[in-house]
Amino acid sequence: MSRNATFLTILLENEELLASIAQESEHRVSLSNLKERISQFNPELNPEQIEKRANKLINSEPFPILQLISQDSDVVLHEKITELFLWLSNQLYIVHDKIIETLVETINLASEEIRNEINSTSKFNTHLISIKMDEMFRSLSQLRNISEQNKRAIATQTQNLRDKNVDYEYRKLTAGIIEDHLEPLRMMINDDSFIVQVIDNAEITLGIIRGNSTISEELKSKSMRLSKDMARTSTKTREDHLSAFKSIQPFLDAFLKKQTDLVVGSQKALNLMNEFGVKHLNIPSRITLLKGTRANNIFSDAAFKKWFIRVNKSTDDFELKPISVEQATSYVPSIPISRLSEHISQQTEVEDLLLFIMEKYPKHGLRPCIKAMIDCMVKINNFHQLEFGEIKPYSRDKDYLEVASIGYAR
Alpha-carbon distance 213 to 347, whole Å? Predict the structure, then answer.
C-alpha cells in the first residue's frame, strides 16, 4: 500500500475521533484524553492496541495527523486536517451520536464529582467544584455548536435529496446513510433520553450548591448561570434537531418506505422506456383492459373495438348502430329541496310530511322521499314546529318502511 493510501486509511479509521478533536477549543487534547477517546470510539481495542493507534496518528506520513507538544503532553490536530473536517462539517458531515454521548458523559461525570465533593465528610474543595463547573460550561457550549452544525448539515442533505438532477439510486443510497446517522440522534432527544436524565441530575447538583450556606455567593451565582446555560442548551439541542428532522423526514420516507407493486412496476417500465424506447414495452399484448377500469366510461366500447381492429390489422367490418331518439328513458329529476321546504313552510299545517312529499312526487321512490323530508327539516331549521305521531307503514314499489309520522305546524 502506498504512503498516501496508508495516510487516507488512518483518516478513515479515526474519522469520528478526529472530528471530535476538530470541535475542541484550539483543536487540542491531552495525550491521556486522546487515549480515552480512542477507547470510547473503539471499545473493542485493548490497552496495547489503543497505544498503537495513538502512535500511528502521531507518527503518520507525509505529516503527523496529531502533533505532539512534548512540554504539555498534549496533541494538536494538524491545521490541514482541521480545515478538512470543518469543511466536511459545514457541507456534508452530521456529527455522530457517540461524540454527543462523550460530551454528555463529561457533564455527568463533572456533576457526580461535584456532588461527591459536597457530600464528603471533610471540608470540600471549592476550587475543584469551580473547575468541574467550567468543564460543564465547555461541554454545553460544544453541544450547542454541534446542534447548530447538525441543523445546517441536515438542511444541506435535504437540498441534495430534493435535487432531481441527481441520479435516483444515488439519492436513495444517500437517504439510507442519513437515516442510519439520524436514528440514534432521534433516540437521544426523546423525553426519557440519557441527555435529559443527565441534565436533570446536574440541575439537582447545582441546586445543592445554591442551598448550601457554607458555599460562597460567587460560586452560587456561577451555579445559577450554569443552570440557565443547561436549560438553554437542552432547549436548543432539542429544537434544532426536531426542526431538522421535520424538514428531511418526508424525503427520507419517499426513498426508504416500502414501495407498492405499482410503483416498482412503473419504475421498471420507465427504465425500459429510457433504454429501449416505448415499443419495447409491447403494451398491446401485455395490458388487459377490464370493464372495471373504466367505471366513468371515458372511452366507449365502439372506440375500443376500433382500436383493437386497427392494432390487429383486422379486415372485419365494423358497423355502428344508431341510437333511437324515441327510446324510452327512466330519468327522474331530483326533488328540489329549496322549493319544497319553502312550500312546506307556507302551509298552516302538514299532518304527515313524508306522505305529503310522496303524494307531491309520485314518480320518486321511498328513499328519495325520505331523504327529501330530512333535508327539508334541516332547511326549515325549527324543530319546535315538528310534531311526532304514531308509527305508520310507508311503501312504494318494492320499498317498505315503518316509522313514526312527523307533522309540521306553523
Answer: 88
Burial class of residue 213 in the structure, from the number of CB atoms within 10 Å of its CB (0-12 exposed, 13-18 middle, 19+ buried):
exposed
**pLDDT tens by residue, 7-61:** 877 887 887 788 778 777 677 888 888 888 888 877 778 888 889 888 888 888 8
pTM of the model: 0.43
Length of the chain, in residues: 410
Q: How many CB atoms lie within 10 A of CB 100?
A: 24
Domain map (residue ranges) of the chain: 1-92, 94-257, 263-312, 337-409
Instruction: With CA atoms as reference, report the closest residue to 38 among 81, 70, 64, 75.
Output: 75
Secondary structure in 3-state letters for the chain: CCHHHHHHHHHHHCHHHHHHHHCCHHHEEEHHHHHHHHHHHCCCCCHHHHHHHHHHHHCCCCCCCEEEECCCCEEEECHHHHHHHHHHHHHCCCCCHHHHHHHHHHHHHHHHHHHHHHHCCCCCCHHHHHHHHHHHHHHHHHHHHHHHHHHHHHHHHHHHHHCCCCCHHHHHHHHHHHHHHHHHHHHHCCCCCHHHHHHHHHHHHHHHHHHCCCCCHHHHHHHHHHHHHHHHHHHHHHHHHHHHHHHHHHHHHHHHCCCCHHHHHHHHHHHHHHHHCCHHHCHHHHCCCCHHHHCCCCCCHHHHHHHHHHHHCCCCCCCCCCCCCCCCCCCCCCCCHHHHHHHHHCCCEECCHHHHHHHHCCCCCHHHHHHHHHHHHHHHCCHHHEEEEEEEEEEECCEEEEEEEEEEEC
| Beta partners for residue 406, in sequence order | 388
Residue written as cell 331530483? Answer: 334
Reported as a single tens digit per residue, the pLDDT across 67-114 is 887 656 788 888 777 777 666 555 545 676 777 888 888 888 998 888
Q: Assess contact for 96 and 19: CB atoms under 8 A.
A: yes
CATH number given to 1-92: 1.10.10
Closest C-alpha among 101, 105, 95 to residue 15:
95
Dihedral angle computed from the Cα positions of residues 200, 203, 205 and 207, in that order, rounded to the nearest 10 degrees: -140
